């Protein structure tokens, strides 16, 4: 596996507490990966470090074919490098339509100058339609985002992230608050997206993780406790003790 992202010996303490403790693992170029672990295991801090929100105390995060270090880059620069992050709560513009939300995302993906010079073109309209179709919203381009279900808003936000063509998508607890049908469609969406880019999903819902049918990394006390298929990690006595058995 050629790594797209390599976390190498990363540690981060908050007030003397080691939230991330010599963490090392890698994500491949076109890979779907689930990250699970108990509350406080360091999952959010890991994403904060990758996206530049939090600086590690030591260790490195290497990115891409040239293994450039992300740890001293700004959040904006890291986003431009091709790392998109989907937070748990959707942050779409509720008064705007799906098409308008996606158009805004497309404009900002092209940089601040193109926002000023932006003229709607046939190509950009086609791209907006493609993005909507990619996230199961092709038939609803002119609906206001505020009218969408929670799951549909999550998809719209994923579509907005796709506007900047990320090579790595970090997705925080996508299943929370979704109906069963939405969960199933979301699993299919994430699996499809991971055919051409890396998708890392942090999730507590084990049924959802099972449906993702991908390699799982279990974090505990800021380090990797186990890694492999869900069946493999679920059979690990330490994983059962600290997480699954509770
Ligand atoms: N900015 C911060 N200041 C102080 N402590 C922090 C900060 N961020 C995280 N922590 C602590 O670091 C530890 C790891 O937290 P983190 O949020 O990364 O865990 P998590 O695995 O995402 O948990 P959850 O599943 O509950 O979201 C926790 O004990 C948390 O209280």
Automatic annotation (TrEMBL):
Iron keyword on record: no
Entries under SUPFAM superfamilies matching the protein: P-loop containing nucleoside triphosphate hydrolases
Molecular function terms from GO: ATP binding; ATP hydrolysis activity
CDD domains (UniProt xref): ABC_Mj1267_LivG_branched (cd03219)
One GO cellular component term noted in the UniProt record for this chain: plasma membrane
Presence of the UniProt keyword Repeat in the record: no
Keyword field: ATP-binding, Nucleotide-binding, Transport
ABC transporter domain: residues covered: 5-246
Protein name according to UniProt: Urea ABC transporter ATP-binding protein
Species annotation: Paracoccus sphaerophysae
